[in-house]
Structure formats: structure tokens, C-alpha cells
Amino acid sequence: MLKGLERLTERGKFDEPCSSIEIKKEMEFKANPVAYWWNECKEDIFSQPIFESLKSKTVVFKLAYESYKNFCKEEGIVFEKRKEVKEMLSEIENVSVFKDSRFNQEVVEMILEKSPQSPDNSKEIKSTNTVEVEYSFGIKKNPDHMLAGRVLSRKRKR
To answer: CA 86, CA 108: separation in Å to the nearest integer?
Structure first.
């Protein structure tokens, strides 16, 4: 009995039986198939993003939705409509769905967890009349002053 206590102390947690892991997955799937699909497939979905920065990855919603539909067909369940999938994705932490004017279509953006080794991506502006804008996906330069984010600074070349 003391050896069992020692093993538990070393691991810091109980071993979960395979049968309860399967039941847990099934319950999660039935409760929210979109979140379950997201957790199972997000690495594949974001393997070829249309935009990637140190802070986020962005993919076209249409492709993500196709992945979701295929997943549901493989699992033998009825899939949700596009609108419901967008709403459910938006409820997932660090995920947003919106129409991106850069690509003129709806996209899914996943905010990456900040790693301690990430370099600072702030840059000094050297061009004339450039406005630095902070978007949810990072810092971009917008020479046309068509702001979609919050203005951080305006600098003129002297």
C-alpha cells in the first residue's frame, strides 16, 4: 500500500483508465461537436495558414468549415450550419471568426500562446506618413491610414 502511495506522489496524479478516457471523449463530443472537432483537428487546419505571425495564425473559414463537415461525416453525425459553427468557434478561447478585408473573406484566427523566447516584434517606422496600427494578429504598417485597429504612433521622416 505504501508503494502505491509513493508512485502516486511521484506522478502527482492518478492514472486514468483507458475506458474512462474513451467515455470522457464521447461525452465531450456529444456535448459540443464543434469544440471536439477543433481540439482534434486544429493542428491540421492551421498547417497551411493564409497569414501567420508570432502571435497568431489565420485560415479561411470556408476551408475550416469543410474540415468540420468531413469530420462529422466520418463520425456519423449531422453537422451544424455555418452560422452555428462560427458562433461556437467564437466561444472557444483564443479563437475568433471575422471578415478580413485583407483577404475579402471570412477567416478563423487562432491566437498563439506567447512563449517566453518570443522576440519583440515592434519596429521603428522610417517611411513617410506611415501609421503603425495594432491588430489582433500583430503590428502592421498602414500607409493609407485606413485603420482597422488602434493607432499606436505616427511618425514623419525628417
So the answer is: 9
